[in-house]
Design brief:
Length: 327
């Protein structure tokens, strides 16, 4: 498959990048490593007439701060650099481990943290070449008017498949977006929209520039991923868990977020409530796992049978919380 023709722009500053985007209009897209956009362009899922590279913007390649005061990560920092950063491994080890689960070493060299957080949603009926999709009369997400996962639904059910997004939501990260209108900071939980087509609360002219991680203050975090192969594959279930402990080893607060089962990361407040004020004992762990199981409603649009994927929610939540109990 070949890329369609497009104009390639390489700005030198963030201000230049957003100005080029504003001048180019709706037929332009930003690109960093291109590990998601370029395959989509080859399949004619996305066909921008102008592609604006942000990989040479020095401001987006910085990591500053630490776990005590909070960490700021530039959106174009590569996934490999996330995996290997001494500060992230020391203060935010769950982030480094989650990044290490993404794809393969070669693609992590090109892929960026910002690109992973903004991944296009995925679906068995959407992630095919143009001829295959034309053969089934296209789908609601691109060129058609029917969601083949749920034909009677007016909504697209393509799933959010970022490994870092559920963890960023659980950690309470904030994302900085820049455009010609200025900057705005949004909570990671507020960035994602539970719709496979309009999956981001972000304007196309806005450039993700920074990821702001809050101080850890003794928090414990973990991410677990279900996929067919031990590398390369996207998650068909992701479990991110973050807990804050009291001095008496009871849980002050807890957030559990599921990925890979819906168009957006799904937080399960009932699971957090089941843990809050209690010790992290087997009874509470299984109560949280049951709450996540009830909330998980995967559809038949990714790898594995959807019923089995739902069943796997329980053991993966248990594994995540048992790991946190050993910290």
């Amino acid at each position: 498959m070949r890329l369609p023709k497009f104009n390639y722009r390489v700005p030198k500053t963030v201000s230049d990048a957003v100005k080029i985007m504003a001048d180019s209009g709706p037929d332009a897209m930003f690109v960093a490593g291109g590990t998601d956009l370029y395959p989509n362009m080859k399949r004619r899922q996305q066909t921008p007439k102008a592609v604006i590279s942000v990989m040479r913007l020095a401001e987006l390649h910085q990591i500053r701060g630490d776990g005590a005061e909070g960490l700021v990560i530039g959106a174009s920092v590569s996934l490999t650099d996330i995996c290997e950063s001494p500060i992230i491994n020391r203060d935010y080890p769950a982030v480094a481990r989650a990044a290490r689960l993404i794809s393969t070493p070669i693609l992590r060299n090109m892929g960026t943290i910002g690109g992973n957080l903004l991944l296009d949603t995925r679906c068995n009926y959407y992630d095919q070449n143009y001829e295959w999709r034309k053969g089934i009369n296209f789908c609601l997400k691109k060129d058609g008017d029917t969601c083949w996962v749920a034909p009677s639904s007016p909504k697209c059910w393509a799933v959010q498949s970022s490994d870092l997004a559920p963890l960023m939501v659980a950690l309470g990260a904030r994302l900085k977006l820049h455009s010609t209108l200025g900057d705005r900071l949004v909570d990671a939980a507020g960035l994602y929209n539970n719709d496979g087509i309009d999956y981001l609360h972000k304007r196309p002219d806005e450039l993700l520039t920074e990821i702001h991680l809050p101080p850890m203050n003794g928090a414990r975090a973990v991410y677990k991923k279900l996929r067919r192969r031990g590398s390369f594959d996207f998650p068909v279930l992701g479990v991110a868990a973050v807990i804050h402990m009291n001095g008496d080893e009871t849980i002050h607060s807890a957030r559990l977020v599921l990925g890979g089962i819906a168009p957006a990361p799904i937080e399960v407040p009932e699971a957090g409530n089941a843990l809050t004020g209690c010790s992290l004992d087997p009874e509470r762990i299984h109560a949280a796992a049951e709450a996540c199981y009830v909330k998980a409603r995967p559809l038949d649009n990714t790898d594995f049978v959807m019923g089995w994927r739902k069943q796997m929610t329980r053991p993966f939540v248990v594994r995540a919380l048992e790991e946190l109990s050993r910290h």
